[in-house]
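thread: overnight batch results

M.L. [08:02]
morning all. the overnight job finished for the chain we discussed friday. pasting input first so we're all looking at the same thing
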Amino acid sequence: MTGESNINNDTHPLKNTFKTLISIRNYRLLISGQLVSLLGDGVQILALVWTMKVLTGSSVQMAFVLVADTIPMIIFGIFSGIIIDRGNQIIPRTNRRMTKRG
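M.L. [08:03]
and the structure it wrote out:
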């Protein structure tokens, strides 16, 4: 063999995966909405830091604004991950109890 695969490209399940996703309207709406949201978040952070720099002229206070914006995301992100992981274990147990009684 010269490195050719024996998979028929016309019937391979992963062929044209991206084209298939883009053809789904709801997927396009999700991705475009996510893009707009992330762009807005970036502009908001940039505007906040720039405003602090213009108002005070201090790089230290600008850094404090960045830290004050980042630390809650880190802390809440960790705890929300723990809550979500535990919630995913609790919900199936609750559903099992409800189906046994019903």
